[in-house]
Amino acid sequence: AEYMGNMKKEKEEFQVLRGSAHFRYKLALATVTGKKIKMSEIRREEANPGITDYEADFIKLLQKITEGSRVKLNKTGTKVKYTPGIITNNYGVEIVHECNKSRGIVYYLEGIFPLIFFGKEPLSLTLVGATNDNIDVSIDSFKNVMTPLMAHFGIEEPIVINVVERGIYPDGGGKVVIKCPLIKHLGTINLTEEGKVKRIRGLAYACKTSPQLCNRIVETMRGIFIDYIPDVWIHTDHSKSGLSGGYGTSVIAETTTGVLFSADSIYVPKVECTPETVGRECALRILDEVLFGGCIDTSFQPLVLCLMAISSNAHVSSIKLGRISKYTLGLLRVIFEFIKVKFKIEDCEDNIYDMSDSEDGEREKDKDAEMGTEAPIILSCLGWNVSNIARAAFTQTN
Question: Is the pTM of this model over 0.85?
Answer without folding.
Answer: yes
